[in-house]
Design a protein that fits this description.
Length: 597
């Protein structure tokens, strides 16, 4: 504590008077000293305050600097919409086809919810809502409104017309929440590819959209990622080609009285899926419920091209011929014994038609001899056959851009012995998807390199593992062309004027769940390539249980069912793909030269 200085100390006053000095001088001196003391005290206090203030300012700037440094060294993140204490990503990127046409987008709409305690006339509100929404019951709504609850959802999304009708009811307790709903402007077109979406987390002012199937589910995180800045997902599909394929396929399924149908159109160099169709289909804007029991194939949600695992019959003969040629076991002119029936372990192998005593390897494929193909498989053996089919990707689920592809793992024999080796050589005893077949055919005709099918737009050809040589691939292309062009071939109805078509038919009896095979139910498949002289595309068409009457006879084989449907698809889509028709004279000359070889 500072000692206060007295202005007129008595002792000094008395002393000054004895000496004859003026006592007032003492007072003035003491007053000066007191002022100096006060000034020093105030200065010290001010300096202390300034020091404290400087420390505070320095600390504040230090904290700001530390925060700025942390932000500068962290990964950038977009803010999400926070509602009711939870973060909901309420936007979703568009999906486009290869030409930039919209396949899936978002539409601004509203959700409808109610605060029952704010309703003026709950009974009138219940009756009004029941009149607007056909599936709502007035009595049920009234019971809910008077149950004591303070909040309830009425609709996750409503149309603008419905919103106006609700608004006209004049009830303050009926409220609207902003929403973005998923819209598929093309309806059922490419439904199985897109799959569909639904609302996930919901709050009053926001709701997330999550994919439930197809590419919507496969790329769900990417489509909802704010860091993408709303960049669309570019698919390899061509909308106009897809529409043409689905239209022809639907007509073919009806004409052939088939239970279902599927088609895959694939670029043999890039692996891009230009079209993928499965019928029956559905509208993803009103996606039906999944079947809880029975055969999954009975549901329109079932993707026959990606999920359906079938014995694909004689289409597999191409792989057997490719392997024996590649391994140098035979050449195309080597003669093979085709006398039948061929017996193995109590099982008979027969040909659909009698081919005589022997056929060349080339004609085994062109005329589709089961016996000839089985004898080629005997040369290969089970182990090498498995290795070859494995390199083609025919023994495991495809790495494809749809969640359904994981359910399409091929069904393999439990005991892959000599008998299985022979039946698998012509497509029986092993089941795979149509997409497996399309990708493997692309590998066979593109020069021999493995193709992985994809639904994403590609910038160039794939550089996959080489499975067969260019020479073998060229020989296979000539044989596939002969299947269509030569009179003995099994796909004469596949000819399309101006476009060279090659391919292989496959007609496989359907397995009976009770054991054995049905006598009157088949899976008819035609795996085609075009243009056959320089293949650009593989098109695989499959009909489930087709049946057609021709000249008083019931026909079920692929040559009578899947082949003409495939020809019509090629006739429709080839110009859309930018393929110019070839000169007719050149086409005729090529067919004549092929027949003479």
């Amino acid at each position: 504590m500072t000692r206060r200085i007295a202005l007129r100390p008595l002792a000094r006053i008395l002393e000054a008077r004895q000496k004859g000095e003026n006592p007032d001088a003492i007072e003035r001196e003491n007053l000066r000293l007191r002022h100096e003391q006060q000034r020093d005290s105030l200065r010290q206090r001010a300096e202390s305050r300034l020091f404290v203030l400087a420390v505070c300012i320095f600390a504040a700037f230090g904290a700001v600097g530390v925060k700025m440094t942390a932000l500068a060294t962290s990964e950038p993140e977009e803010p999400t919409t926070a509602t009711s204490g939870s973060s909901i990503i309420s936007t979703r990127a568009d999906i486009l086809d290869r030409q930039g046409r919209v396949l899936a987008t978002n539409l601004l709409t509203n959700a409808l919810y109610v605060h029952p305690h704010e309703l003026i006339d709950p009974e009138a509100a219940a009756e009004g809502l029941a009149g607007i929404f056909d599936d709502l019951d007035a009595e049920t709504l009234l019971a809910r409104f008077t149950s004591g609850r303070r909040f309830m959802w009425i609709r996750g999304s409503i149309s603008p017309e419905q919103r106006q009708l609700v608004h006209d009811l004049g009830e303050p307790g009926l409220l609207f929440g902003p929403r973005e709903m998923r819209l598929y402007p093309n309806g059922a077109l490419a439904a199985h590819v897109l799959g569909g979406a639904r609302f996930g987390q919901q709050a009053v002012n926001a709701a997330e959209i999550v994919g439930v199937a197809g590419v919507e589910a496969e790329f769900d995180e990417d489509l909802r990622d704010p860091a993408r800045g709303g960049a669309p997902l570019d698919l390899s599909l061509d909308l106009t080609v897809q529409a043409a394929v689905e239209e022809v396929l639907d007509g073919g399924m009806t004409l052939m009285n088939a239970r279902g149908a599927a088609a895959v159109l694939l670029d043999v160099h890039s692996g891009e899926v230009i079209s993928l169709a499965s019928l029956p289909d559905f509208d993803p804007n009103q996606r039906p419920r999944q079947l809880l029991e029975g055969d999954p194939a009975d549901s329109p949600l079932f993707n026959r091209a990606v999920q359906g695992r079938y014995e694909l019959g004689s289409t597999y003969k191409l792989f057997t011929v490719a392997q024996v040629l590649e391994e140098g076991l035979v050449d195309t002119d080597t003669m093979i014994d085709t006398r039948g029936p061929m017996r193995m372990a109590g099982f008979e192998i027969n040909d659909f038609t009698d081919h005589g005593a022997e056929l060349s390897v080339r004609d085994v494929l062109v005329q589709s001899s089961n016996i000839g193909t089985a004898r080629l498989a005997q040369m290969i053996g089970a182990e090498r056959q498995q290795q070859f089919l494995g390199r083609l990707g025919l023994l495991e689920a495809l790495d494809f851009d749809m969640v359904e592809a994981r359910q399409g793992a091929p069904i393999l024999p439990s005991n892959w012995g000599q008998l299985s080796t022979m039946t698998i050589s012509y497509g029986h005893g092993i089941s795979a998807t149509q997409l497996h077949l399309a990708a493997s055919y692309a590998t066979m005709v593109n020069g021999g390199t493995v193709i992985r099918p994809t639904l994403l737009r590609q910038d160039g050809p794939q550089m996959g593992e080489r499975v067969i040589s260019e020479q073998t691939s060229t020989a296979l292309r000539e044989m596939l062309r002969a299947v269509v062009a030569e009179p003995e071939g099994t796909a004469n109805l596949a000819e399309v004027a101006g476009y060279e078509v090659g391919g292989k038919t496959g007609s496989a009896d359907k397995p009976d769940p009770q054991g054995g095979y049905y006598d009157d139910r088949v899976i008819a498949t035609f795996a085609s390539v075009f243009p056959a002289n320089d293949p650009r595309y593989v098109l695989v068409v499959t009909l489930d249980e087709p049946s057609i009457e021709v000249l008083g006879e019931t026909r079920r084989t692929a040559g009578w069912t899947a082949v003409p449907v495939t020809a019509e698809v090629i006739r429709r889509v080839a110009p859309l793909l930018g393929l110019r028709p070839q000169d007719v004279d050149h086409d005729v000359a090529y067919r004549l030269s092929s027949a003479s070889q």
